[in-house]
Design a protein that fits this description.
The complex is a heterodimer of chains A (175) and B (319). Chain A is mostly helical and 175 residues long. Chain A has a single domain, classed as NADH-ubiquinone/plastoquinone oxidoreductase chain 6, subunit NuoJ (Four Helix Bundle (Hemerythrin (Met), subunit A)). Chain A starts with a helix and ends with a strand. In chain A, strand 1 and strand 2 form a beta hairpin. A two-stranded antiparallel sheet of chain A has the order 1-2. With 319 residues, chain B is an all-alpha fold. Chain B contains eleven helices and no strands. In chain B, helix 5 runs antiparallel to helix 7. Chain B is globular. In chain B, 45% of the residues are buried. Classes of the chains: A mainly alpha (175), B mainly alpha (319). Chains A and B meet through helix 2 and helix 3 of A and helix 3, helix 4 and helix 5 of B. Chain B: It holds the Pfam family NADHdh. Chain B: It is found in: Cell membrane; Membrane. Chain B: NDH-1 is composed of 14 different subunits. Subunits NuoA, H, J, K, L, M, N constitute the membrane sector of the complex.
Chain lengths: 175, 319
């Protein structure tokens, strides 16, 4: 079980690096899918099969499909890749790299200071996830709901079109 | 796994063998049945009842030139047809064909099926995109939108069954249907699941991603030879999968009166649903793309949510 955990984690990290470094958008997104699948396996080995299934259904199955959908509509060409290269000058890396270094140091400190957490195979099933969501984390669920609602209202507002009536003699539009 | 290893391998091998043969045999069954319902003969020359058309078809698929267009994205182009087969075959892992004849009884069986069927959407999207052809791209976009939206209702319609049986495991779901098959208390859920299943396998009347008359063949117009064959077989496997799921979830799986063994009941029920799939193809016209989306989001989604809430309320009252 531990071996699968480490293999899956390594794949997740490698795939995520490929997502960032790949210039071909669709290939990058394919690596993103692999990364999500690997994370699902990590969840599975950590004893959360329910979360693993949801990870695949929602992230790999729905969200990345939507992203690919948008990318296909954007019709990116080589010019866009060149343009992106000019945006990503080495200078822009300094700030984020410094901040990440601090985080990395913290992480290293935590790993060294604390005992290594062991993988316990206590499966967390759907019932426990539900009880946790609607018990201690109720506020979080409600906030997520509000965020999604805002997204829906925004999408509706942006997507609303004026109804266009096309006729041979008169062309008018009504809301 | 409690069973010994050879037995386990035997089940996997048996399931694979039967499924691939069913998928190939469906080509003949579909053409003959379509012909019957449309008042013509269909393929009836090669062999008894034209059965050898299956052999001829598979031979043709194997020996056709396997051409990758020079303008295509080669890696993704090759990858796409494999995804559909892998995802569909993986879904069969959790289906209980009869007591003991199941590859693995996952305690998240239903979710595993949903996860795998959502992975299937990639084959259409990637296939259409990698072909680098505007008709393919149009088909891929339609397919992506259709599959994402119908997955939502599919998952939510299933949750009614999960609520009633109290388990995600498909074996438990079948066992809890001993008194009453779930299609009676969950009739709305069943209808929605079936419609979503037809859309998910992009069969007629919901074959908008391929729509021969407007998009040539949609996402797979650039595919030939066995790569096209994989899409083709994947589609028939998809139909079989949805029929198996409908039978398992709503029609009591292998349960039935004692005079026939459980596996025969299962096969009979699945066969009936396969026939319904073909009959749908023979009888219904294809809706327009926007009609399909509107029908999904404006009718099916509210219905599913109401069904889920009412089921949950009844389960809660009886507790």
């Amino acid at each position: 079980m531990e071996l699968t955990f480490y293999v899956a984690s390594a794949i997740a990290i490698l795939a995520t690096i490929m997502v960032i470094t790949n210039y071909n958008m669709i290939h990058a997104l394919l690596y993103l899918v692999v990364s999500f699948l690997a994370v699902a396996v990590v969840f599975f080995t950590l004893g959360a099969p329910f979360m693993a299934a949801l990870e695949v259904i929602i992230y790999a199955g729905a969200i990345v499909v939507l992203i690919i959908f948008v990318i296909m509509m954007l019709n990116l060409t080589n010019e866009d890749v060149q343009q992106e290269k000019t945006w990503l000058r080495p200078k822009t890396w300094i700030g984020p790299a410094l901040l990440s270094l601090v985080l990395l140091a913290e992480l290293a400190y935590l790993v060294i200071a604390e005992d290594m957490p062991t993988i316990n195979n206590q499966p967390v099933d759907a019932r426990e996830v539900g009880l946790a969501l609607y018990g201690p984390y109720l506020l979080g669920v409600q906030l997520c709901g509000m965020l999604l609602m805002a997204g829906i209202v925004g999408a509706y507002h942006l997507g609303r079109q004026k109804k266009k009536v096309v006729h041979r003699f008169l062309e008018r539009s009504e809301i | 796994m409690e069973e010994s290893a050879p037995n386990y391998l035997l089940i996997i091998g048996g399931v694979l063998f039967v499924l691939l043969n069913v998928a190939a045999g469906m080509i003949w069954v579909e053409r003959r049945m379509l012909a019957l319902w449309q008042d013509r003969y269909g393929p009836n020359r090669a062999g008894p009842f034209g059965l050898f058309i299956v052999v001829a078809d598979s031979l043709k698929l194997f020996f056709k030139e396997d051409w990758i267009p020079p303008f295509a994205d080669k890696i993704v182009f090759v990858l796409a047809p494999t995804i559909v087969l892998i995802s569909v075959l993986m879904s069969f892992v959790v289906i209980p064909f009869a007591p003991g004849i199941i590859v693995v009884d996952l305690n998240i069986g239903v979710l595993f099926f949903l996860a795998m069927s959502s992975m299937g959407a990639y084959s259409i999207i990637l296939g259409g995109w990698a072909s680098n052809n505007k008709y393919s791209l149009l088909g891929a976009m339609r397919g992506a939108a259709q599959m994402i939206s119908y997955e939502v209702f599919m998952g939510l319609a299933l949750m009614g069954v999960v609520l009633l049986s109290g388990s995600f495991s498909l074996v438990d779901i079948v066992e809890s249907q001993r008194g009453l098959w779930f299609f009676i208390p969950q009739i709305i859920g069943f209808v929605i699941f079936f419609i979503a299943g037809v859309a998910e396998t992009h069969r007629l009347p919901f074959d908008i991603p391929e729509a021969e008359s407007e998009l040539i063949a949609g996402f797979h117009s650039e595919y030939s030879g066995m790569k096209f064959g994989m899409f083709f077989i994947g589609e028939y496997l998809g139909i079989t999968l949805i029929s198996c799921m409908v039978v398992t979830l709503y029609f009591g799986g292998w349960l039935g009166p004692d005079f026939l063994p459980p596996i025969v009941w299962f096969i009979l029920k699945v066969g009936a649903f396969l026939m319904i799939f073909i009959l749908l193809r023979a009888s219904l016209p294809r809706p327009r793309y926007d009609q399909l989306m509107e029908y999904g989001w404006k009718i099916l989604l509210p219905l599913t949510l109401v069904n889920l809430m009412v089921t949950a309320a009844i389960v809660l009252m009886n507790e």
